[in-house]
Structure formats: C-alpha cells, structure tokens
Amino acid sequence: MLKKTVVVKKVKEKPKKEGEVDPKFWEMLLSAQKKDYERICQEFGITDYRWMLKRLNQLKKEREEEQAKYVEKVENMKPIEVKPNGKAGFELEMKLKNPKSKIYLYKNGEIVDYGDGTNDSFKHNLKKVGDKYTFTISNVGPEDAGLYQVNVEDATMFSTELEIADVEFDSTLKDVTVVKGKDATFECVLSDPVSKITWCVNDASIEPGDKYNITVSEDMLTHRLVVKNCRPLDNGTYTAIAGIKSSKAALTVKDDPTALQKGQRGTDNTDKLGKSRPGSCRAQHPKQLEGLVVVALAWKTGLQEMESWEVEVGRRGWEEVN
User: Fold this and answer.
1) What's the pLDDT score for residue 95?
2) Rounded to 5°, angle at Cα 203 from 202 and 205
3) 10 within some domain
4) How far apart are CA 178 and CA 253, in angstroms?
5) Which of 48-52, 69-73, 233-237 shows the lowest per-residue confidence on average (mean pLDDT)?
6) DSSP type of residue 34
7) Could you tell me which of 174, 146, 170 has the C-alpha nearest to residue 219?
8) Looking at the record's lineage, which domain of life comes first (predicted)?
C-alpha cells in the first residue's frame, strides 16, 4: 500500500515594516558603503531592497540637513576594525563651522568619555590632525562590542559597529616565499563561521582590488588572501584578524633565478632609452614620445637588481627622472 505524501508549503516571509526594523539597521546603512548594503540587509532580515533604498535616501537627506548646521563637510569615513596591536579604531574627516563645537562619542546610545591620546588612563581616545579625526579603543575585549556613534552637538556624523566574534584559528597562516611576479596566497581556517575578517599588511588594512583578492568559503570557515604580482615592496608581515584573535605570517619575494641566468636585467632596453646613470634615466625624442607612457629603466646604486616603472612624458620635453 502506497503511503500518501504530504507536501508542506513554505510560508513566504513577509517583508518587515518600518516599525519592525531595528533602528540600528538604519544607523549602520547611513554610514556604510554601497558594497555593504546587501550584507547589512541580510543580517537584519531585510528583503525589500527597493523600499530600503527609498527610505534610506530620505533618511540621508534628513541627516545631511542636520549635519549642515555644524559642519561644512563629512567624508572619508572608515568603519571600526581591530588592529594587529590589539586596538580598535575608526576615522573620518569633517570640517567644523565652529571650532568650539562639542564632539561626543556614544556606545549603544550611552555617552563615552575619551582622552586626546596623551594619557594612557583613557580606554577611548580621539586624535585630531587637521580635519581628520581618529578614534581608538585600547585593549579591545568582548565587552567593547557595540554600535559607536560620533556626534557634533546634537547631530550624528558617523556610526559604526564593532563586532567581536567568539572564534579560534583551527588553521593559522603560514609563511610564504614566492618568485617576483608570481601570486602569494595566505589561508586560515576558523572554528566557527565568520562572514568577514580583517586582513592587514604591516599593520595597514587591506581591501580587495587590483593588488589583493579576498575570498571566503561557502561555510564561512576558510578565509583566503591572494597578493597578486608580488614585488619586493610586498615583503612584510601579513595578519588575519577574527574577533580579538589574530594569526601572522611573513611574505618573502625573491628574484626569478631563471630570468637572472638569461641576463634579463634590462640592459637591452637601456640602450633604447639612452644612456643612464645610477638612480636616473632620460627619455629621448620628446616630440615622438609626447603624451605617451614609456617604460624607463633605472639602476639602483649598489644593487644588482634593476626595477622598472612607468614614466609619463609631458609636453615640457624630455626630463630627468630621479
């Protein structure tokens, strides 16, 4: 006797209405880059992107009107992230209309006292250089997670959330040695899923682009960084940061022994570009090269290695490149 198959229909989740959305969702979107919109919507269960964008544009207009009371501009906002030195920080640039306007720092809606960076007794500090403001949190721990907000008087300038995942490194980074011109790959495996971790080189954050490729496995456990077309300048310490845990490894870029054996040191191209002296070269026939980009070869004093770079020949005629 055949058993009756029962088909269970999935109930389609209704889009959340504005009153049902966590206010933190809008705060994060107002300060986020467009590339992060989808991720933030997924975290808060928002599926109606058209409604989200319409409402977001309205809120942005209102926010800009509030900011205009106290500042001439707010730009170059960088979200908070944990650094290899154990601190967390975020920054923004803003030009105050009144230098005496008060600046406030909030965490989860509560005001936070901060120092100017000269006194180690403060956990939170603000350093100002010109129009650039850098906020830092020392000795970051799980208790420091939360939504941070910068206000000038009663107007919000920037909001950013510090998320501290409770994870360990099941597999740490390994040192990598590659031949110049090749790609280098760093990989780590986490104990629990994390959608995004922080990658650094010599304490400076890395973003995906022409130089770096950052990927995450489907289960969000394996994180990979690829350094493309490695050059000697890429030598250094690379760090993966997940939560407050980190893993470090070194990248060493070596010359291609095959290329050296073949005598590929740029001597053939040097003749085409004219005579050169250590540390400089000259581009000849400026009228023919005007407006073009040529490759110049330069010998570094005391080094056997020759490097190449691009030189744009302008309308001033030939010029010396130091």
Assistant:
1) 95
2) 105
3) no
4) 5
5) 48-52
6) G
7) 170
8) Eukaryota
**Of the residues 138, 162, 186, the one at which a domain ends:** 162
Contact 108, 101 (CB under 8 A): no
Provide the pLDDT for residue 158. Answer: 93
Query: For residue 243, how many other CB atoms are within 10 A of its CB?
Result: 20
Non-local (6+) Cβ contacts of 34 within 8 A are none
Query: Which of 13-27, 31-45, 143-157, 281-295 is least confident?
Result: 281-295
pLDDT digits (tens, 9 = 90+) for 83-131: 998 899 999 999 999 999 999 999 999 999 999 878 778 999 999 999 9
Domain of residue 299 covers 263-321
Contact 201, 237 (CB under 8 A): yes
In this predicted structure, the answer to whether residue 298 has a pLDDT above a threshold of 50 is: no
C-alpha span between 264 and 121 (Å, rounded):
57
Q: Are residues 145 and 195 in the same domain?
A: no
Q: What angle do CA 32, 75, 195 make, to 5 degrees?
A: 25
pTM attached to this predicted model: 0.66
Please list, in sequence order, all residues whose beta carbon lies within 8 angstroms of the beta carbon of residue 122, skipping any fewer than 6 positions away: 113, 114, 115, 138
Does 271 lie in the same domain as 239?
no
pLDDT in tens, 212-229: 999 999 999 999 999 999
Give the CATH number of the domain where residue 38 resides.
2.60.40.10
Q: How much of the chain exceeds pLDDT 70, in percent?
A: 74
250 and 219 co-located in one domain = yes
Tokens of 280: 């400089």
Residues 29 and 97 reside in one and the same domain: yes
Q: Quick one: 199 and 72 in the same domain?
A: no
